[in-house]
Input
Amino acid sequence: MQATHEVFNQPEPLVDYNLFDTNHGLRDALKFNAPQLATAELSALGASLGSAEMQTHARLANTHTPQLHSHDRFGRRVDQVEFHPSYHVLMDAATRAGLHGTPWGSPHPNPLPKGEGTNSPVLLPLPPGEGRGEGSPHVERAAGFMLFTELEPSILCPISMTYAVTPALRSNAAIHADWAPRLTSRAYDPALKLFSEKTGVTMGMGMTEKQGGSDVRANTTQAVPDGSDAWGPRFRLTGHKWFFSAPMCDAFLVLAQAPAGLSCFFIPRVLPGNSLNAIRIQRLKDKLGNKANASSEVEFDSATAWLVGEEGRGVPQILEMGTMTRLDCALGTSGLMRQALSIALNHCAQREAFGRPLIDQPLMRNVLADLALESEAATALSIRLARAFDHNTDAHEQAMARLLTPVAKFWICKRGSHFAQEAMECLGGNGYVEEGGEGIMARIYREMPLNSIWEGAGNIMALDLLRALRKADAAAALAQELAPAKGAHPALDRLAAALPTRVEEMATEMEARRLAQDVALAVQAALLYQSAPAAVFEAFCDSRLGGDWGQAFGTLGADVDFDALITRAMPR
Ligand SMILES: Cc1cc2nc3c(=O)[nH]c(=O)nc-3n(C[C@H](O)[C@H](O)[C@H](O)COP(=O)(O)OP(=O)(O)OC[C@H]3O[C@@H](n4cnc5c(N)ncnc54)[C@H](O)[C@@H]3O)c2cc1C
Output
């Protein structure tokens, strides 16, 4: 066959670049929130995650989706999920990078023997003398989590839950003592075996039932007392969970109705004594996105579980885990935004239309600069929130963790889908196609709504902010947070002056979203003033706070320093 035409004006894909070194917004956020942090390990991670090889694993793990084997060929129940080998490579890489638990564990990689099949190149040895960021393990881990999300977000579901479980699990000291070394080990060990025979373990959580997810008080799963042993009061659980992501985890925290009320339980897949617990995986969810992650429906058939925390206090107990996964929703969306922006910039720098590269067309410059602003503001707020968890004995940081968790989860995740749609449109028709490197954009678009829905959907986050305002001395804490930017921009000054009164007067439920949005914008602006170049801060305040903006991306005022914003955001 003869060639009918020559292919030209199609961009080279964005591969083999360093996700960390090229992310100035993230690096400046780290300098501000964790100035002592040594970033050599993050840079090595960024290089690995930007490689063509890892991008191929991400594509394969999403194309060859998990398969449920409920029974073996002889009809015996096995309740196993089978994954493509690339899924395991990604899980191994995330575990080796410590994204599942480093802040809670030993600063030294691999405290336990290395797991089988751990051949990922991700974790490079640190140069001599380069310690992990003293006092900033959550910030460092947050940056790594953001970078990994750029490569592949769905495998991070069990990674995030494993990271998140420790504060809640500590309430059962015996279980925590047994499981903690493996929860923080850098060995990925996917085998279905007794925890003590494994080099590393993962954990998930189960709250949502068919009749209610936000309102978990409606849970019907029953917990019947069954004696006591070295792990404390033991119960038998009968019922179901309608969403149970990552059912191949080694154990879960779940809610069930005990005699004293809704309680939090630890439920392992393999029981001490080596028998399988009665957790039946009914089916896997057929989802819009998040394809590499096995989300399932399960039933408990008199499954064995142990109480965590006080009986009847299950909701606050499991929400200690939920708080950390909400942080990850904000981080994950910020990572997805950054990747979508990078792909859009890469495309527009190479694609020509009407006689010049798209990136030189004035209106496209407005779209790209506007997206860059949103991405940088999301990064700044997410990393700042992570800092609050590094200093949880400080009263101001405690207040910020409580206030900014629902604020960041609400606002950043709300912006995500809109952002992905606009970044996709920068690629024209290629953006909508699943195939090849540009297909990452379609994957990002399908992933975006999820971070807004799970771990507490938008309204639930806004209502949680109202609850937070009732408890902490919120107005003073917020004023303290905004104080360093006082006088920097008239629009920020106006908002900062109005917020404490709105906070003190307590917004009604009807106003909760508006308040969450305004707190987010004010804190983002104050952070950008302290950590980003003046052009970024000015453009953010003029548009988001000053009203010089439309209702779609690409509506910044004409006097914005577009060159500065676009050059700063370029991924190469
Ligand atoms: C892919 C995926 C994986 C998941 N994995 C897990 C998992 O591993 N474990 C787990 O426990 N759950 C999981 N979930 C469930 C998820 O957390 C819930 O779907 C979510 O919390 C919402 O609960 P719901 O679906 O019951 O919706 P509902 O509670 O019915 O809420 C529906 C809507 O009503 C709004 N709403 C609720 N109450 C109010 C109110 N008082 N005022 C105003 N608006 C309100 C909500 O914001 C939401 O927009 C997963 C979900 C998905 C999509």
User: Anything to note?
Assistant: The longest strand covers residues 232-245. Residues 204-208, 212-215, 243-245, 287, 290, 295, 450, 453-460 surround flavin-adenine dinucleotide (CB under 6 Å).
